[in-house]
Design a protein that fits this description.
By secondary structure, the protein is an all-alpha fold. The protein has one domain: Glycerol uptake facilitator protein. The protein is 65% helix and 0% strand. It has nine helices and no strands. The chain is globular. Residues 242-247 have low confidence and may be disordered.
């Protein structure tokens, strides 16, 4: 099994790719005059970042790319709890680095103002004006199902080799559903990187509302892990001391 430092390095670069590719599609390409990719294009971009990186680093770190996924794998008895903090740190650093690189590119256009910078929000900062409660329910429930799919597609009983495809398509579907509601998080690291950039340039609401995009995904993921372990897993769960990579080519 790769060392923890190598796995955390893979998580850094994987999360960087997710934020740069997914949020980059929203910041640079979603509304490009006449040829913008729109919501569907952004949703596909997020799914593709997970799909491609799962094949690239799934065998190294498990390709979590998301603090909620890491927590869900811990509660689902697929990943050791002792390694959750190093994984979270690597994911957050990767997300922040990607957000700043994305700003460096976007600001090369004359007159550019970052605005919300693809940050997640509720109430007046929800793309569709959805309430705090609606956004909390959406984020928690979608993360729950995302983790159930991750745990199921990476189960030792599942068809081999198809987990990255299933997970990438699931994330695409999640974005198709929830971009109008919260701009779609289901990933605290993805939310944190852009929120930092937005706050630096005067959009302090992004950091003030960030708590929801930690709380809801973490609760949804933790419950999904507990549910899968208790209801859907085999009676004899593999010990968490085994190689976590074998369980989690996820995002």
């Amino acid at each position: 099994m790769p060392t923890l430092s190598k796995r955390c390095t893979a998580e850094f670069f994987g999360t960087f790719w997710l934020v740069f590719g997914g949020c980059g599609s929203a910041v640079l390409a979603a509304a490009f005059p006449s040829l913008g990719i729109g919501f569907a294009g952004v949703a596909l971009a997020f799914g593709l970042t997970v799909l491609t990186m799962a094949y690239a680093i799934g065998h190294i770190s498990g390709c979590h790319l998301n603090p909620a996924v890491t927590l869900g794998l811990v509660t689902g008895k697929r990943f050791p709890a002792a390694e959750i903090v190093p994984y979270w740190l690597a994911q957050l650093l990767g997300a922040a680095a990607a957000a700043w690189l994305l700003y460096g590119i976007a600001s090369g256009k004359a007159g550019y103002a970052p605005g919300g910078f693809a940050s997640n929000g509720f109430g007046p900062h929800s793309p569709g004006g959805y309430s705090l409660v609606a956004c909390l329910l959406a984020e928690a429930s979608l993360t729950f199902f995302f983790l159930v799919l991750i745990l199921g597609s990476t189960d030792q009983r599942a068809a081999k080799g198809f987990a990255p495809l299933a997970i990438g398509l699931c994330l695409t579907l999640i974005h198709l559903v929830s971009i109008p509601v919260t701009n779609t998080s289901v990933n605290p690291a993805r939310s944190t990187g852009p929120a930092i950039v937005a706050a630096v340039f005067g959009e302090g609401w992004a950091l003030r509302q960030l708590w929801l995009f930690w709380l809801a995904p973490l609760v949804g993921a933790a419950l999904a892990g507990l549910f899968y372990a208790a209801v859907l897993a085999e009676h004899e769960t593999p010990p968490v001391t085994e190689d976590p990579v074998t369980y989690s080519a996820a995002a």
